């Protein structure tokens, strides 16, 4: 049995989980998320807990068992607490500004880069070099943060660029002098 898949998921107060065939909807104080479960996996709600089970030990069933349980758990955490990811802008002259709900980056290009938040995602700017991406969908928060980082990845010689909060950039030695 999958060690993760067989664990029950406790449903906190204020959260409702409804299962309709292969569709699982999670509704909580921060919003509502839905998930379509892959075919062999079965989801049941009983006694304030969500149970995920698989019918057989086929390779596909085994691989989807723990994944499905984790996705449902992430949705429950998302509608109760939400997710956030921090980004730091490092470099001389590199900065970030809030423009309404969008964020404008000055990253050494000839033009400022304006990033609009996807649906369900909010950007908050602290100071002129920190951005926090937050929302209820873990996958959407991570993807939005990765797309911002992709604009100017941290380079290995001076470490300039957009990096995740707490990310360690491996530095290279430059050209040796005479």
From TrEMBL:
Residues 11-82, 90-164 form the Large ribosomal subunit protein uL6 alpha-beta domain. Keywords: Ribonucleoprotein, Ribosomal protein, RNA-binding, rRNA-binding. It comes from the Bacteria. InterPro entries: Ribosomal_uL6-like, Ribosomal_uL6-like_a/b-dom_sf, Ribosomal_uL6_a/b-dom, Ribosomal_uL6_bac-type, Ribosomal_uL6_CS. Signal peptide: none annotated. GO terms for cellular component: ribosome. PROSITE patterns: RIBOSOMAL_L6_1. This protein binds to the 23S rRNA, and is important in its secondary structure. It is located near the subunit interface in the base of the L7/L12 stalk, and near the tRNA binding site of the peptidyltransferase center. It comes from Microbacterium awajiense. This is Large ribosomal subunit protein uL6. HAMAP family: Ribosomal_uL6_B. The keyword Metal-binding does not apply. Belongs to the universal ribosomal protein uL6 family. SUPFAM superfamilies: Ribosomal protein L6. Part of the 50S ribosomal subunit.
């Amino acid at each position: 049995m999958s060690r993760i898949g067989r664990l029950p998921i406790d449903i906190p107060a204020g959260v409702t989980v409804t299962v309709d065939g292969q569709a699982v909807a999670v509704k909580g104080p921060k919003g509502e998320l839905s998930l379509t479960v892959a075919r062999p996996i079965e989801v049941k709600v009983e006694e304030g807990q969500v149970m995920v089970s698989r019918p057989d030990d086929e390779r596909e069933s085994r691989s989807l068992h723990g994944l499905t349980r984790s996705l449902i758990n992430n949705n429950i955490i998302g509608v109760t607490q939400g997710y956030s990811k921090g980004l730091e802008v490092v470099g001389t002259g590199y900065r970030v500004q809030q423009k309404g709900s969008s964020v404008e980056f000055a990253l050494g290009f000839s033009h400022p880069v304006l990033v609009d938040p996807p649906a369900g995602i909010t950007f908050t700017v602290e100071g002129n070099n920190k951005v926090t991406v937050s929302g209820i969908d873990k996958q959407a928060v991570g993807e939005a943060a990765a797309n911002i980082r992709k604009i100017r990845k941290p380079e290995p010689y001076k470490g300039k660029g957009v990096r995740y909060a707490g990310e360690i950039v491996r530095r290279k030695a430059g050209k040796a002098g005479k």
